[in-house]
Each structure stands twice: as structure tokens, then as C-alpha cells.
Amino acid sequence: MDDRDANSGKVDINGYPIWYEKFGTGSKPVLLIPGGIGTGRTDYWEQLEGDDALDTNRFTLIAVESPGWGRSAPPARRFDINMYNRDAECYYQLMQHLGYEKFSVIAWSDGAKGALTLAIKYSDSVNAMVLSGASICGSKEAVRFLNTIVKVDSWGPGRLDSYLR
């Protein structure tokens, strides 16, 4: 799949230019929410292009970049107690803007936290969810791990290159 296979755009929601890419024409819309600093193409490459790609005749895949990250910035992401509430509101409004009253969600890591909030606030709209890697409490081990991934100079070349693309 390349750029010609996706419809993309930005929608202004709550002061953020929310970037999205839409793949396929299937009758089942699925919102793909990446982890922190991720994009649909970096975090969902396998589902979009890899050996395990989802059937875009069956599903319409909407890959979003979260408020304040990537092409959904500026403004920069605000880290505060309402961060995931803002994320959920942006995801919901994006899907409404695109004409999807009901949809499913695949999310991981930081995106999974916003997805959980989305499902709580808008349970009538979320059909199903698949979440992975959602840490919901801070332990010393979690903080130590987060500190290692923040320093991109310690990433391997393949991982860094995928984000730089």
C-alpha cells in the first residue's frame, strides 16, 4: 500500500489539526490509534501493508495521529489530567466528521488509554475494541522503560527509520 491507496486529510477539532488516513472501502469502519509519537503507518504497518494486512474490501481503516503528535500538531501535546479525555473527544468527533456513527477501534500503548476513554464516554458508538500495551498505573519499572524509549538515539536504525519516514 502506498500514499495513492489512502485518502488523507486534517480536521480541526478542539484546537488541533487532527490528521488521518483512510484505507479501503469496506462496510466496517475501524479506527487505528497509535501509541505516543506513532502514526498509522508506523504502528499498524502489518495491518495496513504487511503479511497480516486487513481486508480493505471488508474494512475501512482510519489511521489517526493523536492530538499534539506528528501531523496533528501544532499545538504541542498537553500533558495533564485531561489529556485522554481530549484524545477521546478528538477521535469521536473525527469519526462523526467522516460519517461513522458506529465503529470499532484498534489501539495500543498511549493510544489505548485514549481508546478506553473513548469507549467509556461514547459506548453507543464503539462496537468493539482491541487494545494492547495500555499501562494504567505508574511503577518504577514502567517509568524506567519509558525513559529508555524517550531517548531516540538508543533506538535501532530500523525502528528510528520507520518513524522518520
Automatic annotation (TrEMBL):
* Database matches in InterPro entries: AB_hydrolase_1, AB_hydrolase_fold
Q: Which residues form the AB hydrolase-1 domain?
A: 28-136
For this UniProt entry, the molecular function terms from Gene Ontology, in alphabetical order, are: serine hydrolase activity
Question: Which is one Pfam family of this protein?
Answer: Abhydrolase_1
Stored SUPFAM superfamilies: alpha/beta-Hydrolases
Q: Which domain of life is it from?
A: Eukaryota
By its UniProt entry, which Gene3D superfamilies does this protein fall under?
alpha/beta hydrolase
| Protein name in the entry | AB hydrolase-1 domain-containing protein
Q: Which organism is it from?
A: Oppiella nova
Its taxonomic path starts at:
Eukaryota, Metazoa, Ecdysozoa, Arthropoda, Chelicerata
